């Protein structure tokens, strides 16, 4: 089983509360979402694995069980064209859980008129493949979010 941990500190709100129908409807997969603390921070890898997709606003890490975990930094942040995001790794890099992937500031995202809410999604998984799903409460970076069979 893959243990997926929080890439950020903040308040867990669950996918249903994400202000985007693709995420709130779990169209890309089940998971949860974090309303991040409002301070400059580094989004870290939620699993050990390989960075298979990397954009300023989102990244996917594929673990040894071929589970792809998407971390999406804010909603509609692709429209910022990378402004305010700093990549700390490269696509194809092997990363460890807790390793910094993207530096960003949720305050700047809000100032640009975007939601800083961050979905953390088990790509192409079924909802019943997840266990211990956290959908509310405060989390620190590295706290458990869900298990994935």
Automatic annotation (TrEMBL):
Protein location: Cytoplasm
Lineage: Bacteria, Bacillati, Actinomycetota, Actinomycetes, Kitasatosporales
InterPro entries according to UniProt: Dup_hybrid_motif, PTS_EIIA_1_perm, PTS_EIIA_component
Signal peptide: none
Xref: Pfam families: PTS_EIIA_1
Coarse class of the protein's main subcellular location: cytoplasm
Name recorded for this polypeptide: PTS glucose transporter subunit IIA
Domain PTS EIIA type-1, residue spans: 20-124
Keyword terms of this UniProt record: Kinase, Phosphotransferase system, Sugar transport, Transferase, Transport
Gene3D superfamilies: Glucose Permease (Domain IIA)
């Amino acid at each position: 089983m893959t243990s997926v941990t929080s890439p950020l500190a903040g308040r867990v709100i669950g996918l249903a509360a994400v202000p985007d129908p693709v995420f709130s409807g779990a169209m890309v997969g089940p998971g949860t979402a974090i309303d991040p603390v409002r301070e400059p921070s580094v989004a870290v890898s939620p699993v050990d694995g390989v960075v298979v997709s990397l954009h300023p606003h989102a990244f996917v890490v594929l673990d040894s069980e071929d589970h792809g975990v998407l971390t999406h930094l804010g909603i509609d942040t692709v429209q910022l064209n990378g402004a305010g995001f700093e990549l700390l790794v490269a696509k194809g890099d092997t990363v460890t859980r807790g390793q910094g992937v993207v530096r960003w500031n949720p305050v700047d995202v809000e100032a640009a008129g975007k939601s800083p809410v961050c979905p953390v999604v088990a790509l192409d998984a079924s909802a019943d493949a997840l266990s211990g799903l956290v959908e509310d409460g405060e989390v620190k970076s590295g706290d458990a979010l869900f298990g994935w069979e």
